Amino acid sequence: MPNLALKTFLCASAALVLGAPATHAQSRKKARPAVAALAAAKVDRTDSVALRKIFDEALLRGESYENLRYLTGNIGPRLSGSPQAQMAVDWGKATMEKAGFDRVYLQEVMVPHWVRGKEKGEIVGNKGKEIKVPVCALGGSVGTGGKLKAGVVEVHSFDELKKLPDASVKGKFVFYNRPFDDALIEPGAAYGRAGDQRRSGAIEAAKRGAVGALVRSLTSARDDNPHTGTMQYDPAVAKVPGAALSTNAADQLSQLLKANPELQFELEMECTTLPDEKSYNVVGEIRGSKFPQEIITVGGHLDSWDLAQGAHDDGTGCVQSIEALRLLRAAGYKPERTVRAVLFMNEENGARGGNEYARLAAQNKEVHVAAIESDGGGFTPRGFGLESDAATLAKVASWAPLLKPYNVDDITAGHGGTDIEPLKAAVQPKALIGYKCDSQRYFDIHHTAADTFDKVNRRELELGGASMASLIYLLSKYGL
């Protein structure tokens, strides 16, 4: 290429990387740091053009939002084992086939079938006054077998519970009232720190002879929406019911206990566990043009909790995963490595879909370069978190200049995702990658009746699919 033409090309590429129109003189001025960054990344400068095409397609003709509208509005809640979960499987398969993927198929997996039933909670004062409070059963809980009324003991940790004398716990509800640590910048960190009381609270309560566990909802929001989520039982410990209180209800119960330690709580839950049901992961793939034996997986989980439409958790991840492959095709790009979109079944209360996908990958001796998961909502894209060695992280981070114009260049060590985690032991991919979006609002609606389609912003959702497609483009072209 002649020198003058080369300079013109480099300036144009820099303008694309910076993501803003510029005059020729401005482009020459701005080109130097951008071109230097691209050179350091060892990528083809035409990659910036390819990524721009992906984002143009997403923003101008994206299909994620309308796909999500159908999934949430026409199917709704999709708890594993439910008829709606099977409807979602059928929808996922049909949507991938319509998108024209090279291959679409199902992976059979047996999943738990838990049914919520009617539920009610009341605070009962010493004069018999009853105060109804928002409550919901934790996923997998046993029922109460009618109305269960007992005293309440409030704690903030398992250690605090262990220090209490048996007489103050036996025959009562243990009320776990540890709040989110709002000093933490990332709400996910607060969720992690508070999560043990939901997961294992019923076990620890039953060990001390309690009749049940009441858990403050895992959120910093102050409202009347109780948050469900999975809980665990220990075969060696009696099963007692577990329920979540909304944060307002938890604050109210705590305040009333201070004034009257003898008050009682009445809980009624009709939840039950039925025999396992047959379900499926939905898989669609575009076969690689040069290295078809090398696989890049991108996915979200198709199941959701039963309180709402499962829009952000994880309808957004499902439609973004499908869209990532569609965007590559629409932009005219043929991946060099095979790319799969996987809609995993049963992440919420068992992760059996992810385990089965990994088992089959190992059985078929598949080579997985990387796996990407979107399960943090459909908010504004920020970047990606990698579980990988340092060299792999450095390579992916070197692509940040290409992603910077789209504000998705935050590439750091991080958690991949629940559904792709089993691949680590099964086939040892070079990287497990978690899609990161703005998380500040996520736990306001997570696992609640408020997780509905109207909470999803179209542009944020479409930008997320384009961000994932862009990373797949780079992974497919350069490998790891």
How many beta-strand elements? 16
The 3D shape can be described as elongated
Mean pLDDT across all amino acids: 92
Number of domains: 3
Number of helices: 16
Low-confidence stretches: 1-39
Corresponding CATH architecture of the largest domain: 3-Layer(aba) Sandwich
- The CATH homologous superfamily of the largest domain is named Zn peptidases
Residue share in helix: 25-40%
CATH topology of the largest domain: Aminopeptidase
Rg from alpha-carbon coordinates:
25 Å
Distance between the amino and carboxyl termini: 30 Å
Global structural class: alpha/beta
β-strand percent reads: 15-25%
Strand neighbour order, sheet with most strands: 1-10-12-11-13-16-14-15
Biggest sheet record: 8 strands, mixed
Name of the top-level CATH class of the largest domain = Alpha Beta
